[in-house]
TrEMBL record:
Superkingdom as given in the UniProt entry: Bacteria
GO terms under biological process: protein quality control for misfolded or incompletely synthesized proteins
Name of the protein: ATP-dependent protease ClpP protease subunit
NCBIfam families named in the record: Clp_rel_HeadMat
Keywords for the protein's UniProt record, in alphabetical order: Hydrolase, Protease, Serine protease
GO MF terms, alphabetically ordered: ATP-dependent peptidase activity; ATPase binding; serine-type endopeptidase activity
UniProt keyword Magnesium present: no
Lineage, opening ranks: Bacteria, Pseudomonadati, Pseudomonadota, Alphaproteobacteria, Rhodobacterales
Acidic residues bias (residue ranges): 235-285
Region of interest called Disordered, as start-end residue ranges on this chain: 214-285
GO cellular component terms, A-Z: endopeptidase Clp complex
The keyword Plastid belongs to this UniProt entry's keyword annotation: no
Pfam families: CLP_protease, Phage_capsid_4
InterPro entries xref list: ClpP/crotonase-like_dom_sf (IPR029045), ClpP/TepA (IPR023562)
Amino acid sequence: MNEIVLTGTVGSSFWEEEYFTAKSVREQIAGLKGPLTVRLNSGGGIATEGQAIHNALKNHDGEVTIVIDGIAASAASLIAMAGDHIVMPAGAVMMIHDPARWCTEGRGTEDDHLKEAQALGVLANAYAGVYAARAGIGTEEAREIMRAETYFDGPAAVAAGFATTTDESADAAAAALFDYRLYPKAPKGLREVGNQLGQRASMSMIWSMMVGASNPKPKEKAMSRKSQRTAAQVEGDDEDQMEQDDPITSEEEDQTDLEDDLEDEVDLEEGEEIDPEAEEEDADLEEDDAAQAQANALGIRRFCASRKIGRDMEANWISRGLSAKQAIAEFKKMKGHTMTKARPGVARTRILRDERSTRRAAMADALHAQIVGRDPATAAARPYMEMSLVEMAAATIGHRGRIRSAGDKINVFMDASHSTSDYPAIFQNALNKVLLERYSEFTPTYRAIAKQKNFRDFRPMPLVRAGDFPTLLPVGETGEIKWGTFGESGEMAVIVPYARGLTISRQMLINDDLGAINDMLSSYGETIAHFEERTFYAQALSASLSDGTAIFDASRGNLAAAGGGITAVSLSEGRAAMRKQESIDGQRLNLAPSILLVGPDMETEAEMIVAQITPTDAGAVNPFSGKLKPVVTTEIVGDEWYLLSERAPCWVYGFLDGQEAPRVRTEEPFGTQGFSMTVEHDFGFGAADFRGGFKNPGA
């Protein structure tokens, strides 16, 4: 059984407690298939991280059961909604409330606050939609529950529709470590858990949580003026770390005086900085600390917004309790005193490994959806649905500027294919999806008469026949068991690799002609299915077994002495011959035909003999009515027909294990003629036995 444990704060650690993130959850469930149990115990955390974890669990390929071991509060309660089954042991608690944010983008103007309120409304409505869908209530009713900061025990959660069952046989674990004093209506028991942390969380830590700090660092103790080190010394200590953390990747222009203006606005008088040691000694300074932390955070946020500085850096400064002036000084030291302003346009952001693979998969899904002309399969692909081929290529290489001419498009494709960008992989992935889809639409008839057995490698695969197994013998009084052996038939199936080159032309790419690409891959998908059909029948019906005798031969008792049409008499002859086939020990196998294989010339006769028709004359009853399944292939020319048993197939076919469909591979990067690619396919088959078939050469 698949099981993961999510304990602690959602998104980050703020009190040196346990925590988990969307990335860690995705890594834990990656590759897991089937039912999944999630043991959840969390007081909440970063709202957007909770949303991402909920979506990751919701998209899991299998049934999800979430057990709330202790508490699921705030963002953790949204995570719980991802379960197909939500179980609450005795004493477990669920808390649902509105997501919050204690800060704004920019300088904190009226517009800034209105925009922040609008963004919070969107997030709250998204949460409400999840809660409403789970409980079967309206979105506005869910919002009222959220606004009220509502607590549920197990039975109450089940009654409200937020849980599916309680488990009275098990007691809940202690609530995860978290400062529940942040929640106005937290019960006394939860507040006591928060008391274990000592001093209430400082405002800098809370602000850091709100902006999504990765791992806040404790605020350094303030020193007296005489013992303070110089700014240069402080900056020097942090320089290496700041260089590693620097998220700014935009190109830069000329120096501005913005940082000087900000320094003037948010500059604090010496002696006004908060002393952490005094804060620990005197809780009465808490309100002053909150006001100071808010002023510092607003100044830092305004500076970061004006310079397009990333959230990680912003959260780092806030969590360390720096003032805006100190943050600006640190940034100057890191970048040099000629700080430059970012050039407007699309910023080049650093992409972590999991984010890069996520974007690659999303782009491939979007391109696949565009080619086949339907909605994307994943929500992550939607932002890329309006992008053309060249725009996707430009996005993968961070191209800036307009793409005006055909020459510009060619240059973008050249750069995207010859650099380390993801575009060739994205394009190849999308083409493979289209080819697989088109290939799967055509089912060759040989698969109805042969058994699939995939090849582990390219070596010939030995086959076991229906008649190869020795029969059972009685055990003597002494308990002696007589041993038998498998028949050494020596039959083999062989797999052969096939391939063909193709080109996605420059014209298709530059013209963004997705329809032409779809048509080309559709024809290839059908062509490969027909290729398998032709290749199989070209050898299967006339194959010889390892003894050198044809699979259908009079000496094997599976070939009619004289050809004839499909009649009750000729079918009876074939059925009798199949039932009389023997194993290596001479035991009758009692095989009955279930398939009638014919060519186009005998299709009507086959349909007539198997039709469900009730005759008026009892003597004209057709004993084969409804007992045989006709299979028609154009690879049979003439009047010959075959009776076959599904229980003992005469042939085996297969593909290379893990490669059961044709695939596209980029052979050469974008060149003068476009993308050169190959379609590759590994396919094999072999004759396994003669006992499960009977041939009539026809009239």
